[in-house]
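2 proteins. here.
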Amino acid sequence: MIFVKAFIVGGLICVIGQLLLDKTKLTPARILVLFVCLGVLFGGVGVYDKLVEFAGAGASVPLLGFGNALADGVRQAIREQGAIGIITGGFTACAGGVTVAVVSALITALIAKPKDK
């Protein structure tokens, strides 16, 4: 049943993104930033954790989940380090995912040999 919940929640997040693309003049980059900021906001007030508990990866993998991870990292770092955690928490919480993205992009660039148009 968790797969169905993940599919439905993840699909609804994607539908919202597609509707924003189709019905507004927002660019993909602005929608990306909007989703990450909403994830931080919802994670900061504790709403997004309930959605992740319900839908699992359907809620934790999309961009909203990245924003939620940033908020969780900041919250935990503030508890452990105090005010400096506001600055360091997000970096610490998401360092692994960002590192994988950068290394994957580097490997792809080395293998693909892109050409200018």
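next one coming up
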Amino acid sequence: MTTHTTRMLIIGSGPAGLSAAIYGARAGLQPIVVQGLQPGGQLTITTDVENYPGFRDVIQGPWLMQEMQAQAEHVGTRMLWDTITEVDLSGPPFRAVGDSGDVYEGETLVIATGAQAKWLGVPGEQELSGKGVSACATCDGFFYRGKKVVVIGGGNTAVEEALYLTNHSQDVTLIHRRDSLRAEKILQDRLLAHPNIKVLWNKAVDHFVAGENGMLSGVALKDTVTDETSVEPTDGAFVAIGHAPSTDLFKGKLEVDAGGYLVVQPGTPKTAIPGVFACGDVMDHTYRQAVTAAGTGCMAALDAERFVAEREFLARG
């Protein structure tokens, strides 16, 4: 067992965690990033990225994360492969224990554990991921310009994604397993009034259908009332049944909202515990973009640097 100590401990290695590391390293905090189960975060399972500033051509998600990691290491970040299994937030120093048995102690703690899109878990879903099946209309909708798309879900996420997709497609279908939507009324009204959106009620996805070219060609549906089966042809299917923030480690230790996201002071990455910061998708249920995650990672590092500087000033008396 080894104990690793740092002035800034970062849990999570997506755009938020790595941006925090870059800024923290440049401020001399010698950050340690514990990479977790999905090093690089959600972008490592995203192929084409077209909306990250600074690149005129389409870039690959895994490549972008490799470059961010290399930049963080270049300025002095230590990247460690481990999965945190427990945390003690009674510090500083704040303490985390890894699956390996190693202990990590940080004068500040940056939580960047992210979120995962919820999936249906039906046949064809994972096989056709990136080949017509997606969980992010904002990321991938552009690739379906002028094509037929479907959105699966009935809450705010699904309705927002369907409305967003009308920017690219004149043929958007919302598929919902019930006969009414859970989304806010104003969103429902916009959706139901939109001429380019139709709704299929009481339909559950049985499986995703691949065409001869190996790409998605349709969605096989089962009527939840009559059990009748049908296939809805489509070029793109967006699963929009919500996200699950990775906050299990912090339950009972930090406040979470109704969706399970960590609560921070408005407009900051500050949690209720001084010196503990949350950034990226673990605290952001509104935007959930790589560039916003990176921005909040920067904010967390700047606040962590101020926290450390104030403690050192007070300690000098």
